[in-house]
Each structure stands twice: as C-alpha cells, then as structure tokens.
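Async update (no meeting this week)

Hi team, since we skipped the sync, here's where things stand on the single-chain job. The sequence we agreed to prioritize is pasted below, unchanged from the tracker. I ran it this morning and attached the output directly underneath so nobody has to dig for it. Comments welcome in thread, and please keep replies under the output.
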Amino acid sequence: MLKLLAAEGKRERAMAPRKKLPVVLREITAETLRPVLKLSVSEEQKKFVADNAVSISQAYFCKQAWFRTISVGEKPVGFVMLYIDRKKADYDVWRFMIDQRYQKKGYGTAAMQQIIEFVKGLPRARALYLSHSPGRGNPAPFYKRFGFVHTGKMNEGEKVMKLDLGEEKARP
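Output:
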C-alpha cells in the first residue's frame, strides 16, 4: 500500500506543470566564457556554424560585433553573434547556435524571437539578414519559420536570407 501511495505521489508530481525557465541573452563574462566555449553542435551540424571560440575571437576584432550567450536561467545553452552597423542600418545574424544537448526544447525559437525584437528596436531597422551553408541538414527550415526568405544571393559560399521587419519607425 505504501509503495502504491508513493507511486501515486510521483505520478502527481510528474503530471504537475513544470515551471519553464526563461531564455535570456546574456553578456559573456569571465565566469561564463568557459561554459560557452564548451557548447557544441552535433558532428553533422559542424559544417554549418563556426566554433564559439572562433566567433568570440572574431568579435574582439570587429567593433560591429554584438555577442551573447543564450541562457536558460543562468545556464548557457547557446551562442548568438550579430553584426550591427547603426550608421548603415545593416543588421545581420552572424552566428547562431544551440548546443546539441539543448536542441528541440524551444530555446532556439525563444532566442531568435528575442533577437528579432532586439533588432526591430535598432535605428532604421528594416531588415535582418543571415546566411547559411547549403547542404542537407542546413538550418534554413528553422529560419523560414520566422519569415526569413532566400534572397537568391550568395555571400562567401553561403545562401543569404532576409527577414523584412516592416516599415521604418521613428526611434530615439
């Protein structure tokens, strides 16, 4: 009888809705650098995105680079880097990755939604661009879910996609 009650209690806890931690874009600090460098996509995906160490190194030599961890609570689960040129109103997703252990959990979707909203708030933002390597398993279907479309252009061997952000709005 006690085992049955214990099993009932476990089932009730399992059925109770879990509180989902929010996805947050956080600055990379000395404390979060090592965990971010350990994030990795699957072997099949490595041809589509650079290693985070390479991305962070590039960011330090490009004043237009804006990079953050994609975190769930305090735990880094991914990485994003944007190219932001406010003078030219040129906004691009330069890198985007979710660690293979955290894919298919909604974290990438939540992060991309936040990125799009962030860019919409930038001066004269009318479009957000990104590019991806062609090939089986590329991330284009993921990006299409947000409204990105292929432009027909190539950039360094990658297919360029564009998200129309609508009419330019007056921004401070």
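Quick observations from my side:
The first strand starts at residue 23 and ends at 26.
The mean pLDDT is 88.
Reply here if anything looks off.
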